[in-house]
Amino acid sequence: MRQQGDDLTSWLDYCAEGVQQTLERVWQRVQQFSASRGRPQLVLRPKQEQLLHLLRAQGGLSPREIWDGLRISKQGAMDLLRPLLKVGLVKRVGTLKHGRYVLK
Prior knowledge:
Blueprint: H1 9-33, H2 46-58, H3 63-70, H4 74-87, E1 90-93, E2 100-103
Antiparallel strand pairs: 1-2
C-alpha cells in the first residue's frame, strides 16, 4: 500500500522504460513492412503481418499452405493477399494450378 509522501521515481522509471520498449518494437514493425515511396501506402492488418512473416520464413507458399498456416478460409486468404499484391509486396509465381505467393 502506498503511503503519502512515498517516492514514486523508480516505479515511474520502470513504466516509462516499458512504454519506450513497446514503442520501439512497434516502430521496427512499421519500418519493416512499410511500402517504399512511390507505391500506394498500405496499413497492414495483423493477419497480413502474419502472412508476410510466413512468406519470409518459407520463401513462398501455395494458397493451401496460406489457408492452413493462418487458419482462414480460401476467401479470407484472398482478402489478405489482394491488397498486398496491389501494392507490390507479394507476387504470384507459377501456373494457375500450381502457383505460389512470394515476397517481391
